[in-house]
Amino acid sequence: MKLKKRYLLAGFSGLATAVVLTKLLVRPRDVDLERSRDRIYHVEHSRFTDVGGLRVHYQEAGDPSAPTLFLIHGFLSSTFVWSRVFLELAGAGFHVIAPDLIGYGYSAKPRNFDYAIESQANVLAGLVKRLGCEGATVIGSSYGGAVAATVALDQPELVGKLVLVGAVSNNEPKRLMMMRLVRTPVVGDILSPLLAGSRRLLRARMKRVYDRHQTSLDEFRVDARFLPLRAAGTHRAIIRTVRNWDALRIQREAQLIKQPTLLIWGDNDPDVPLSDGEELQQHIENSRLIVFKDCGHHPQEEYPASFTKAVLDFCREPIAVTGQ
Q1: Cα(292)–Cα(274) distance, rounded to whole angstroms?
Q2: Would you tell me how many other CB atoms lie within 10 Å of the CB of residue 68?
Q3: Residue 231 CA to chain centroid, in angstroms?
Q4: How many C-beta atoms lie closer than 10 Å to residue 283's C-beta?
Q5: E-strand spans in 117-260?
Q6: Residue in 61, 56, 121 with CA at minimum distance from that of residue 85
Q7: pLDDT at residue 3 is higher than 60
Q8: For position 97, what pLDDT does the model report?
Q9: Can you tell me the distance from the alpha carbon of 98 to that of 77, in angstroms, rounded to the nearest whole number?
Q10: Cα distance between residue 96 and residue 248, in whole Å
Q11: 241 in Cβ contact with 115 (< 8 Å)
Q12: What is the spatial distance between Cα 45 and Cα 121, in angstroms, rounded to a whole number?
């Protein structure tokens, strides 16, 4: 009997290993925008440019001579996260640019990139200069908030105003069980592609948000978000992002951010708690905090109309001139 159980266990382990290896081997190396056009929101606004030898995908809408808004997505995301507010912001009289961070969406996914916050911020700064949009309002969501804040700290002349949406400002997310697993050698290399490449898991996470707002989940939205997450290059970016994650500088140097800053948070944010936003508001001198009730980590997706209004009101306010 013991021998039989041993054979059954060995057989099950062998089958599981074969399934995992097959999944890893058949995943695409990258995603191609042209082949994916029918599953990308606002694809007609997609552009590509070169920043420091890296191919950056971004979406652009609105009058190029109007004030510019840069929309920076977060971890495990892409321009998709702005799909419900992108055209609305442009239609309100702004020049809107939403890039994919390196390693995500349809931007380059190089092997020799470290995917640290500072490295992403350097590419973003290069894109701002490349497009001639110095002094833009930079809007960062989640991990993208840490990237946006880093640009505001290191190259303040590029950022006229700053909007941080459920922004990462410390290393607390690294304590989450899934993040700890991803950081673990070998385990993370196997587990990350399996989790990121599961449409079923992604749909379940998205459905929880939609159910809370009594809205049906459009399967097109699931496909649009899932498609870039299947790529091996994205999986490599996910692993290196987690292993090189260090956002403590944002918390430590928040008082050095001098740009007018709007903080937008969901009161039920499960990923970055409201207390983090409250702390930033205390330390960033020229800042205010708007809290969305019954809202999670992405106010721009859960309450797009209210989010758009809050951003537009803030962006239209004149910047006070000090020190005459």
Answers
A1: 10
A2: 23
A3: 17
A4: 16
A5: 136-141, 159-165
A6: 61
A7: no
A8: 98
A9: 12
A10: 29
A11: yes
A12: 23
